[in-house]
Design a protein that fits this description.
Layout lengths: L6 H10 L4 E4 L18 E6 L2 H15 L6 E4 L5 E2 L14 H19 L5 E4 L5 H9 L4 E3 L14 H9 L5 E5 L5 E5 L2 H7 L25 H9 L23 H9 L4
Length: 267
């Protein structure tokens, strides 16, 4: 996350430890190539939400570092958690993967002609089953990034109450919140969120100072603490981020079954 206060340290450590891939979002990672060491094999992939952001990153990376991105994660407005859109853009067709993916596909194809490097386009946001995968592949994606569908699995190490929140969620329970970090986010509505919306401040001490854009002196609650509490099962003092398709989860399953639902043969 570019917005992390210790972003530079995290990236430098990942490169030093020869991590395979760094996927970087929550801001434009304009200088990410500068952290790569000579001979480094760590791939660097920015998260983008529009053709404009992909173009800006490519021009910066190639112009300053002669580096072509190793991929683009194109995160659409149906994704969970913090979103790279203004609130009014989230439900606009102009922001949809249906519009953005083909644009970025054409862009990376032109880049390949100029540089000789293939740039995978990884679609993210609202992907739940094989139909969704096939749909984004037809739009130009070469891979998918999936998060929400894997929460309600036996292998997920979150508390069972956190998983159950995903199982119980209905489409009308999904809401867009205003996060203390200054971005909108998609989450499962609960009493914690309702209390915040009603102006009830959640007392806290800033233990992390983790996000550059968070004004913790005026924030109604600590986003890091709220998310961590929820993951531990304390949903009275936190909430769960989720993707738009959370209502399609019908129970706790296994990672294998999720993969089969995404890529397996039709029955």
């Amino acid at each position: 996350m570019v917005a992390l206060t210790n972003y530079a340290e995290m990236v430098a450590t990942a490169v030093k430890e020869k991590i395979d891939v760094i996927v970087s979002g929550a801001g434009l990672p304009l200088d990410l190539p500068s952290y790569l060491e000579e001979g480094s094999e760590t791939a660097i992939i920015p998260v983008v939400s529009s053709l404009k952001s992909a173009t800006v990153i490519f021009k910066r990376w190639f112009g300053r570092y002669r580096y072509v991105p190793d991929g683009f994660v194109v995160e659409g407005p149906k994704a969970g958690g913090h979103l790279g859109y203004r609130v009014e853009e989230i439900f606009s067709e102009e922001s949809s993967l249906e519009k953005t993916l083909p644009e970025i596909r054409k862009f990376v194809d032109r880049v390949k002609l100029d540089t000789g490097k293939n740039i995978p386009v990884i679609a993210a946001g609202g992907i739940f089953d094989r139909d969704d995968v096939e749909r984004v592949f037809k739009l130009g994606a070469s891979a998918v990034q999936v998060g929400t569908a894997f929460v309600a699995t036996e292998e997920c190490d979150a508390d069972y109450r956190f998983k159950q929140a995903f199982v119980d969620a209905r489409s009308e329970d999904v809401t867009i919140i205003k996060s203390p970090v200054g971005m909108p986010g998609r989450a499962i509505r609960n009493k914690f969120i309702e209390d915040v919306e009603n102006g009830k401040r959640k007392p806290f001490k800033c233990a992390y100072q983790c996000i550059k854009t968070c004004n913790y002196k005026e924030a109604p609650y600590c986003i890091a603490e709220a998310l961590l509490n929820a993951c531990k099962g304390d949903l009275e003092n936190g909430f769960a981020f989720c993707g738009s398709e959370v209502h399609r989860i019908s129970g706790v399953t296994t990672v294998k079954k999720v993969i089969d639902r995404l890529f397996g043969e039709r029955r």
